[in-house]
């Protein structure tokens, strides 16, 4: 696709996404995040129906990142910085930019192990899951999705990508084909998750008469069409709101963090936790094994005795 000279934003993003997929081998979720950051950048810096990428300069790039940094958390700003560096490298391969644009993107300090991932306590998790009901088709579907997140630690995209063929009912297993690590995984299917999925498949999903092979489909707009990861995240947020819970966060990752923390507290080896979560590095899993100094300080210790 030719994106030299003046072109449309859609053409640029399509070419960039193709580069991320074919050349970089990134998964759909990561590409979506990069593409969204680049889209917002281009809309802010090159407004109009047709844009000229050659008009971008280092000063514009730096000013944009500095503006985002005033309103976003460091982790979000870091995503913008990473996305734009990737985009500028892509432009350089097309002969449309120099290394100056890449170097104009500042490094964003965001220490990965500086804070502990926050999840729900055992009591709050039980209360949250007990609050889930099946009174409407959407709630029936959302309950099945939320149990997949809570019991298996899946990412939102992994739940959205599940297909009917991924469930082996005889063996009681669930196949995850598109992990972030690009490795396939076979996980045991907990009984309560299996029952929730079965109820949904025989109930609200069957009524859509969809031909999609995806497990979870839309039940309102675009009935029967596959869902995306955003809808999975929204399902968690809506359920937390309905339960009246004040959670550390309101997305799908909250339940992933909760499962990992519970496994650590039960003494599960890090390698086993990494296999469940789909981590390629134990360093990533080790985040959950850090000592929470705040919680530790609340544990009463016996006063040391001294010999008289």
Layout of SSEs?
Layout: E1 6-7, H1 9-22, H2 28-45, E2 51-52, H3 58-69, H4 74-93, H5 99-104, H6 122-131, H7 137-152, H8 156-160, E3 167-168, E4 173-176, E5 185-188, H9 191-208, H10 229-243, H11 253-265, H12 270-277, H13 282-285, H14 293-297
Antiparallel strand pairs: 1-2, 3-4, 4-5
Q: Which spans of ≥5 residues are poorly predicted at pLDDT below 50?
A: 291-296
Helix content: 40-55%
How are helices and strands ordered from N to C?
EHHEHHHHHHEEEHHHHHH
Q: What gyration radius follows from the Cα positions, in whole Å?
A: 23 Å
User: Biggest sheet: strands, sense, closure?
Assistant: 3 strands, antiparallel
Q: Helix tally?
A: 14
Residue share in β-strands:
under 5%
State the distance separating the first and last CA atoms.
85 Å
What is the number of E strands?
5
> Order of strands across the biggest sheet?
3-4-5
Quick gist of this model?
The chain has 308 residues and is mainly alpha-helical. It is built from 14 helices and five strands.
Quickly list its features.
308 residues, mainly alpha, 3-stranded antiparallel β-sheet, two-stranded antiparallel sheet, 14 helices, 53% helix, globular
